[in-house]
Amino acid sequence: MSRKPTLAVVGATGAVGTVMLDILTNRSDLSEAYGEIRLIASPRSAGKVLQVRGEDVVVQALAPEAFDGVDIAMFDVPDEVSAEWAPIVASRGAVAVDNSGAFRMDPDVPLVVPECNPEKALERPRGIIANPNCTTLSMMAAMGALHRQYGLRELVVASYQAVSGAGMIGPERLYQEIEAVAGDRTMGTVAGDVRKAVPDLEGSPFPAPLVLNVVPWAGSLKDDGWSSEELKVRNESRKILGIPDLKVSATCVRVPVVTTHSLAVHATFEQEITVEGARQVLDAAPTVVVLDDPANGVFPTPADVVGTDPTYVGRIRQALDFPNTLDLFVCGDNLRKGAALNTAEIAALVAAEFSA
Fold first, then answer.
1. What pLDDT does 51 receive?
2. Is 331 tagged catalytic?
């Protein structure tokens, strides 16, 4: 007999958790399947009252008993918290849909993008489903559609990542830096030294000033000079698309944008591909929007995309000197499709099992 499952949102007061609540309130297709929606956060947030689906809900402290009767739990908490609590939730019979990096490369945990590999949500021996990193997710709907038609072989990606990808501290830091240099028209010149003008970098989530600057670094240092963000793009793309030998090289750059990641993608395919053929495939993809008329200044930018759900694609070009290769520019709101929305879409796949 079918029933409506109980959903828990863990980390409900965080940057992505707040977007999750907005999605559950304004996307009935992703919320009407649930009976109760329970909000859970750290003890310091317990007792807060938040709105979801037009109702006031009191936030509960993270504890085993908070999951009594829960069927699905969406996690947006730090890696170490997910690593501890997602298995606890799974052991109590719920499915944990985790937005952290704790389980993404675990071979017993599916890494799911519903547009690419929804069937993998059924294969969860640990009772956990992982949500990809926001940078990878920003291009997956588009690349998944093109891969199904043409067979993706190689990816070279440069990301331009918004500061909100670093959490709530990211936008706050950028606003502080903007205030520090605002009105000084010498800034960015020899006379106007941005490094001297901005607040001390100690405590900043970024290794250099973001205002009037770009920083070719996101994540933590890994072997051979690669950053963790760059390796996530490589490893997660392979797992999501089911191409273990996919050739991937990424350079991740932080830019002074509050929300929405952008990626310049150089993609090589097994089959011959044309701009018009790619455009037709992308136009047919239900969660992809093509904005591609550069002669009239039409292409996606973060200012156009922020606060929306689709993946936006433009600047689609046949790569010069590279056969079977396209260059394109992709934008996606990193807090929505890049995190909260994809998590909610995965949870919806699980919720559908209760009405099957």
1. 94
2. no
